[in-house]
Amino acid sequence: MTTLQNFALGTWRAGTGTGTPLYDAVTGDVVATASSAGLDFKGMLEYARTVGGPRLRAMTFHERARMLKAVATALQARKDAFYEVSYRTGATRADSWIDIDGGFGTFFVYASKGRREFPNEPFYVDGPTEALSKGGTFVGRHVMVPLEGVGVHINAFNFPVWGMMEKLAPCLLAGVPAIVKPATATSFLTEAVFREMIATGLLPEGAVQLVCGSAGDLLDHLTCQDVVAFTGSADTGRKLKAHPAVVANAVRFNMEADSLNCSILGPDALPGTPEFDLFIKEVAKEMTAKAGQKCTAIRRTIVPEGTQEAVLAALKARLEKTVIGDPRRDDVRMGPLASRTQVRDVGAAVARIRQAAEFVYGDLATLDVVGADAEKGAFFPPLLLHCAEPLRTTEAHDVEAFGPVNTVMPYRSLDDAVLIARRGQGSLCGSLFTADPAVAKRVVFGIGPYHGRLLVLDRSSAKESTGHGSPMPHLVHGGPGRAGGGEEMGGKRGVLHYLQRVAVQGSPDVIAAVTNEWTTGARRLETGVHPFRRWFDEIQIGEALVTHRRTVTEADVVNFACLSGDFFYAHMDDIAARASLFERRVAHGYFVLSAAAGLFVDPAPGPVMLNYGLEGLRFTKPVYPGDTIQATVTCKQKVAKEVPADQPPQGVVHWDVEVRNQDGDLCATYTILTLVRRRPTGG
Ligand code: NAP
Question: What lines the ligand 1 site, CB under 6 Å?
Answer without folding.
Answer: 154-158, 181, 183-185, 214-215, 231-233, 236, 240, 256-259, 295, 400, 402, 428, 483-484
